[in-house]
Amino acid sequence: MQQRPTAAELLADISSLLTEVVEIVPDAVRHRVRVAANLSGIVERELRLGPEAATAEQQRLASLLGASAQTDLEILRAQPVDRLNAPEPLAPGESAAIYDVLLATVRDDLAISKPGYEQWTREET
Asked: Which domain holds residue 61?
């Protein structure tokens, strides 16, 4: 059993502390303190949200590809890339299905790396 605070909680506290002190540090290191606060936040969110995001991506890709949900994620990730690089045209609806899976994955990634940006919605043309 892991003791409290967890690694994610510690990183969140570090990020918060660095954000608080950034205005009182010398100008020469202010940018580096902001970067450290941002990196701590990203790692905290990766620890907290990453496993669920990876599982969701694995399930989406397996469903898209008609594969087992137990298939290695890296193998699943390569298949849509191979399909998009193939010279044969995509079947009707295949492009939209791949887009939807990739968009959901990008949203999960943005929730970790740049919270708030995952709310973007597709612009209709």
From this structure: 7-119
Structure tokens at 59: 């399930």
Which pLDDT does position 4 carry in this prediction? 86
Based on the structure, what is the number of domains in the chain?
Answer: 1
Q: Is residue 105 situated within a structural domain? A: yes
Instruction: State both tokens at 68.
Output: 């087992």
- SS3 sequence of 27-79: HHHHHHHHHHHHHHHHHHHHHHHHHHHHHHHHHHHHHHHCCCCCCCHHHHHHH
- Any domain includes 74: yes
pLDDT in tens, 69-103: 999 999 999 999 999 999 999 998 999 999 999 99
pTM of structure? 0.82
pLDDT value of position 125: 55
